[in-house]
């Protein structure tokens, strides 16, 4: 976790600095401007796969969670279709409207998040001795999967590859912003890791499939309208899942638009390319929910995190090449 914080903040700094230097430009625009066409298409399609899978993992995980704890009588396919109907249409919104949606959801859920964290830290069932036992493992060297999984929490900055079009004025990113992100990142990882250990016990947490759900279910609102905090947690989780899925698949759509002309295929003056994309997304998602069980989803998610650990350095190299070629173009001009 400590290594992930250092690497994560460094990646945020490098990616932010890169996009600050090219205000209002997306990565596909920069690739077309500086790179050969074949490389632009191949690299963009690789990013399409990465961002689509990120959203797919979120959708599958939440659907399984929703069916298990809230609507056990509903089939997995039906639950998936209901979420798909909402999200796939939202993915085609303009970037500024997607950001407005994210801001509204974040402002509405932030009090719930802080309240759940407060209840967890002040709970009578929180055993800090278990946390101290977990801290004794700090002298062990980091392993690949936990490091890349922790590192994933810092990768939201990479959505700037398409959302940078909204930042047309040069922004600022210095040591103050880096320190703030470090504190937030440390707090999130500490809470995410140690609270379930303190509430569930150090010995049993390894075999728990959804540690935060069981942790939230250990909390109670004695005088609240909703007594079990787990219901508040699931609502918060729903909001965060929708935000994550909306952003990831919106970026996927924008990357696809840079490769394929969505206005080309028309029937009776109606664009059918978006319908084809929605159909492909839906088919892949439904097939995944049918053929993957929870263990396989957990296993493949680990593989995905490991792949990301090798992909991010490649993206940083591409960013460096783009910046170098932009400088060469400026000198020639």
In short:
The protein has 333 residues and is mainly alpha-helical. The protein is 73% helix and 1% strand.
Give a verbal description of the structure.
With 333 residues, the chain is mostly helical. The protein has one domain. Helix content is 73%, strand content 1%. The chain contains 13 helices and two strands. A two-stranded antiparallel ribbon has the order 1-2. A hairpin with a 2-residue loop joins β1 and β2. The longest helix is centred in the last third of the chain and has 39 residues. The chain is globular. The mean pLDDT is 84.
List keywords for this structure.
mainly alpha; 2 strands; two-stranded antiparallel sheet; 333 residues
* Rg from alpha-carbon coordinates: 21 Å
What characteristic shape results from the CA principal axes?
globular
Number of domains: 1
- What string, H for helix and E for strand, traces the elements in order? HHHHHHHHHHHEEHH
Q: Termini, distance in Å?
A: 46 Å
Strand order of the largest sheet: 1-2
How many distinct beta strands? 2
